[in-house]
Write a structure and sequence with these properties.
Helix content: under 10%
Shape: globular
Number of strands: 28
Order of helices and strands: HEEEEEEEEEEEEEEEEEEEEEEEEEEEE
Structural class: mainly beta
Strand content: 35-45%
């Protein structure tokens, strides 16, 4: 009989299994049928072993003048890492060549909270800042264009000063979505680089919206979160105050929220590996260190904790590479690249790691000066001699260089 029916189609997909093909669904063997129909769905799929970047491969010490606040890998060039800091600067570092780096100091006037590459133009990056502006910066020249300014009249007091935190890009619609510390969402057209429409209240008025994420499969779905103890799901096509599709209540502030297959390890097919910097220090062979935890979110179990005895500062900003087995870490003013031990340099070269030091160690600022920052000078604790540590791990051999910056 010519052709084939739906039942015998070799490309048939079993609806009860999502999108998993069932090539042996049709069988005359009753035992095999029962196994495929009732037993196989209950068998957990074999999960590939997690590959953990657990050794510092290279680093730039005191690269930024203030604390690192965000990181972003280049969408095409695997060796380029972007970093934003508390002073509003944006750094571009080629960690394969280590010494090729630059810091653009004219992007923002204070904290860079988020960065995203411009769709269809990987030579430009958007940044959202606590100065209330969105910038688009050319990575080759460092020239920055301000797309939106929520504080055109300057500082008028804390009650009216707007700061931008959460940011994401909807590539299909060509929109840059950004949210502020008053609970509002703003839309910017990435083609015209102009604000479009009115601000939309998406969280409790006066609350800080710290996270935005467009669903990678259905970009019209937007996930937001803030310090009003809620994460909310929205349909971008029908955005208005109170129109959220779902409100997910939490007992505490929600600092980040993502759909699957995003800020977790994008290379993990099980979509279950997350990386989190630990604030509380632990005693490791006499040294107080702050590990970076890898957690399997499907079980809640700790998969691994990575640390280096030469890093005694907190590592709150971490980014897994979208293609390579690489972890980037921002710890105080420094950047670190981690790779798995077996992919790092040979044993005989372990003490020749590419660790460079920029600038000079700064004296701790006095509280009397009015600067109450407690993390911008912590990286002065980095030492090449390891005199403060009792660990027997290899010490770093440091190369000093001047920090190149454009203003």
């Amino acid at each position: 009989m010519p052709g084939h029916t739906t039942v015998t189609c070799p490309h048939r997909v079993a609806t009860e299994h999502g999108v998993i093909p069932a090539p042996r669904r049709n069988t005359s063997n009753p035992l095999q049928y029962v196994f495929e129909r009732q037993l196989r769905p209950g068998i957990l799929p074999i999960k590939p072993a997690f590959i953990i970047p657990d050794r510092v491969n290279c680093a730039v010490i005191r690269y930024h003048s203030r604390r690192v606040t965000c990181l972003e890998f280049h969408p095409k060039n695997n060796n380029i890492l972007l970093s934003g800091d508390k002073k509003g600067q944006v750094g571009v570092w080629d960690f394969a060549k280590v010494h090729e780096k630059i810091v653009y100091g004219n992007v923002h006037s204070c904290i860079v909270n988020n960065m995203r590459f411009k769709p269809m133009n990987e030579d430009s990056v958007y940044a959202a800042s606590s100065d209330g502006t969105i910038s688009c910066t050319d990575l080759e020249t460092g020239i920055s264009l301000s797309l939106m300014n929520l504080n055109p009249d300057g500082w008028q007091g804390p009650s009216s000063w707007r700061m931008l935190y959460g940011m994401d890009i909807n590539s299909e619609k060509g929109l840059v979505l950004v949210a502020d510390n008053f609970g509002f969402l703003y839309l910017v057209d990435s083609r015209s680089n102009n604000k479009t429409g009115d601000a939309i209240l998406i969280h409790k008025k006066g609350s800080k919206v710290v996270g935005l994420h467009c669903n990678p499969v259905q970009p019209d779905l937007l996930l937001s979160c803030g310090n009003d103890h809620f994460a909310r799901i929205w349909d971008i096509r029908r955005m208005e105050a109170g129109s959220s599709l779902c409100n997910l209540a939490h007992k505490r502030v929600v600092n980040s929220a993502y759909f699957l297959h995003s800020e977790w390890d994008p290379k993990d097919p099980s979509e279950s590996l997350a990386v989190i910097g630990r604030y509380i220090s632990e005693n490791y062979n006499g040294a107080a260190l702050h590990p970076i935890d890898f957690i399997d979110i499907s079980t809640g179990q700790l998969v691994a904790e990575v640390m280096d005895p030469n890093i005694t500062t907190i590592s709150p900003v971490n980014k897994l590479h979208p293609r390579d087995d690489v972890l980037a870490t921002g710890s105080s003013r420094s950047l670190f690249i981690w790779k798995p031990k077996e992919e790092s340099e040979p044993v005989e070269q372990k003490d020749e790691r590419k660790i460079i030091v920029c600038g000079r160690a700064e004296k701790k600022r006095s509280r009397k000066s009015g600067d109450k920052s407690d993390d911008d000078s912590d990286d002065d604790k980095f030492t090449s001699k390891g005199s403060k540590l009792k660990s027997k791990k290899p010490e770093w051999k440091l190369t000093r260089c001047s920090n190149k910056a454009k203003r």
